[in-house]
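tool=predict chain=A
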Amino acid sequence: MYYVFEQRHYIEEVMGLIGRSGNPTLKESTFEGNRGYGDDRYQQFMTINGTVNKAFITLIILLGSAFATWMMFFNGQEVLPLAYGGLIVGFILALIISFKPVAAPYLVPIYAVAEGMFLGAFSAAYESLYNGITLQAALLTMAVFVALLVAYKTRLIKATENFKLGVVAATGGIMIMYLLSFVLRLFGITVPYLHDNSLIGIGISVVIVIVAALNLVLDFDFIEHGAEQGAPKYMEWYGAFGLMVTLVWLYIEIIRLLSKLRSRN
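tool=predict ok
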C-alpha cells in the first residue's frame, strides 16, 4: 500500500502539469462566445454567489471521495489503481471542461470524484510517514485561500494586466520545469534540488507555493468578471472547476513543502 508514496515524484510532477494547464481561469477569452444571448428576461446569468455554491458542492464531493480512498488505504486495501485512475480521468476531464465549458455542469462533479480518489491516496501516503501533515496542509491551504480572498476583496492585491502576466509567466515556467523533470525521470535522470530537502530544494518549494497561491487571485478575478460580463449560468460550474484546480495544486505543493521541512528533523 506504500507504492503511492514510493512513486510520489512521478505523480506530483503530473499533478503539477495538470494543475494549471487544465485551469481555464488564466484566459479572459473564455468569455468570448460564452455570454448570454436573447431576451434577458429568459436568460440566466453567472453570479458570484452561484459560483460559490457550485465550488462548495464540488469541494464536498471531492472531500467525500478523498475520505473514502483514505479509509481504504489505512484499512490495508490497494489504492494505487484508484490513485492513477483518478489522476488519468481527472486530467482527461480537465481538458474536456477547459475546451467545452458548456459541459462543466455534468463533468465537474465527476472530476471532483476522480480528483478525490487521487488526493485520498496521496494524502494517506504522506500521513503514514508524517503524522498530522495532511491536517496541517489542509489548514494552511484554507488559510492562504481566505487571506488572498480578503486581500482581493479589499484591493490590497489587484489583478492588473502586469500582475496577470507575471503570474502566468511564473506558472508557465513551473509547468515547463515539471514537464522536463517528468521526461528526464523516464530516462533515470533526476532534476537537482526539485524533490530533495536541501535549503535550495525548500526554497524552490516555497516559490512554487507562492505562485500557486497567487493563481487564486486570477481565479477570483475570472469569476468576478464572468458575473459582470453576463456569462451564462453554466459558467458557474466552470469557475468552480478553475478554483478547485488551483486549490488542489496549492494543497499538493504545501504538503510537499511540509514533508521536506519535517524530513530535516
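Residues 1-7, 36-42 have pLDDT under 50 and may be disordered. Residues 8-26+45-263 form one domain.
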